[in-house]
Amino acid sequence: MLSASTFIVFIVINLRLCWIRPVYTCVCGPSYSAYKEELFQNVLTQVAEQFSRAFKINELKTEVTNRLAMLEKRVELEGMKVVEIEKCRNDIKNLREEMASRNNSNFLEDNKKLTPRRDVPSYPKYMLSAQTVDALKKPAFDVWLWEANEMLSCLEHMYHDLGLVKDFNINPITLKRWLLCIHDNYKNNPFHNFRHCFCVTQMMYSMICLCSLQEKFTQVDILILMTAAVCHDLDHPGFNNTYQINARTELAVRYNDISPLENHHCAVAFQIFSQPDCNIFSNFDPEAFKQIRQGTITLILATDMARHGEILDSFKQKVDNFDYTDEEHVTCLKMVLIKCCDISNEVRPMEVAEPWVDCLLEEYFMQSDREKAEGLPVAPFMDREKVTKPTAQIGFIKFVLIPMFETVMKLFPQIEEAMVQPLRESRDRYEELKQIDDAMNEVQKKKSENLTMGGKKK
Ligand SMILES: *[C@@H]1O[C@H](CO)[C@@H](O)[C@H](O)[C@H]1NC(C)=O
Ligand SMILES: *[C@@H]1O[C@H](CO)[C@@H](O)[C@H](O)[C@H]1NC(C)=O
Ligand SMILES: *[C@@H]1O[C@H](CO)[C@@H](O)[C@H](O)[C@H]1NC(C)=O
Ligand SMILES: [Zn+2]
């Protein structure tokens, strides 16, 4: 017969899986249902506590795997009746299959993270100093100095400072809970993580301030710009659209290869809003919500770099006769603004910008390694054998960033000093670094040539 400890282990496993996927039905036999209620309650409480702490699904997977192994061993050792052993074996097999089938899925965490927090969010209220509040408005803000709680406080501050909380009657507690939920739904990728979300939103806030966008746009537009920035990379898996499509991932299949990632970021954003506890728009009438939803979707979908040329061309056609009363013009400008913010790291001071290049390359290398392992096409700029920081950045700054920011500069000349000039400096610096790299490679080549020749002479 099952011992008490085996039983508890079994319950724990079942509870954990129940929690991962609430529809899972527990398989414990009826003869145990009356077993020590109090003990069971204790286990429940402990498990519940553990759940709220467990963030990494991989930890959870390892733990479940270990416990399964333990259980398997016990089943053998305890010498249960044949029927019960068979039943347990089947359960174990089902659990294993369940886990295996979900192994490569990015959606494992959905049920966990989307579950709203009933409690009032507890991130400590960081008092932002007057200095921080002031620096937050500028592209030069050092985004590396802050931990998650502080970034959450900064984001909260922006919504208050822009008058969004007041004008739209947003519940301040809901705002906190929403931001926490946003934080929980960014993965710990090297690049596409919560800090990137913070950077993009902080740059949007800087541009709103620097370009006095509140004088040109309605508050609805400002709310859309900020909210789209916050949500724009939610649950990014760390592998880009091309990978998703080539590897035929669940995301690519779900979205028919059409901007799978951006569609997913957006869907996760609105899954979060569908939780009343996290819905900062709960006071909006249906018409207003519809407008915010449409605007946010348009902006998040515009962050797919595959559409870069199309969006920038469309903006170029409007910029010389820009009309703030023309909805199409305003939408196009908003799309270009979120695009600018999304790829704005090189606008920041060199010490702030440079670590992001390492983060991006790390994420690229993870992808190219996986592509090699899976026999998929690999882009040279993602290949750890081929790319260097200068080569990665020069083309991007010269042919993507500067042309886009210079176009926006036609409308907002004030960004030249604060945003375009740093881009030009960064381009020049990386070109110098590349010359040094090239010279060193040349010497290296000559040396090895000399060696070869020396070898031949002998
Ligand atoms: C699941 O993924 C892990 C690594 O993420 C791997 O070690 C393991 O072999 C995989 N299991 C299956 C059944 O594919
Ligand atoms: C995504 O990865 C592929 C390589 O699989 C690469 O060719 C493509 O340019 C990448 N896209 C972006 C936007 O980085
Ligand atoms: C190559 O060898 C020549 C003479 O054999 C020498 O003058 C030159 O400095 C060497 N170059 C390098 C890079 O070692
Ligand atoms: Zn992004």
From TrEMBL:
Cofactor: how bound: Binds 2 divalent metal cations per subunit. Site 1 may preferentially bind zinc ions, while site 2 has a preference for magnesium and/or manganese ions.
Residue positions binding AMP: H192, N193, F194, R195, H196, D233, D342, Q393
Region described as Disordered: spans on this chain: 439-458
Pathway: Purine metabolism; 3',5'-cyclic GMP degradation; GMP from 3',5'-cyclic GMP: step 1/1
Entry keyword tRNA processing: no
Comp. bias regions, Basic and acidic residues: 439-449
Co-factor requirement: a divalent metal cation
Gene Ontology biological-process annotations: signal transduction
Active site positions, chain numbering: H192 (proton donor)
Superkingdom to which the source organism belongs: Eukaryota
Amino-acid positions noted as binding Zn(2+) 1 in the UniProt annotation, renumbered to this chain: H196, H232, D233, D342
Protein residues bound to Zn(2+) 2: D233
EC number: 3.1.4.-
Lineage, top ranks: Eukaryota, Metazoa, Chordata, Craniata, Vertebrata
Entry GO MF terms: 3',5'-cyclic-GMP phosphodiesterase activity; metal ion binding
Annotated signal peptide: 1-20
Functional summary from the UniProt entry: Specifically hydrolyzes the second messenger cGMP, which is a key regulator of many important physiological processes. Highly specific: compared to other members of the cyclic nucleotide phosphodiesterase family, has the highest affinity and selectivity for cGMP. Specifically regulates natriuretic-peptide-dependent cGMP signaling in heart, acting as a regulator of cardiac hypertrophy in myocytes and muscle. Does not regulate nitric oxide-dependent cGMP in heart.
CDD domains, per database record: HDc
Keywords: cGMP, Hydrolase, Metal-binding, Signal
Listed InterPro entries: HD/PDEase_dom (IPR003607), PDEase (IPR023088), PDEase_catalytic_dom (IPR002073), PDEase_catalytic_dom_sf (IPR036971), PDEase_CS (IPR023174)
Organism listed in the record: Xyrichtys novacula (Pearly razorfish)
UniProt name for this protein: Phosphodiesterase
All residue ranges annotated as the PDEase domain in the record: 116-437
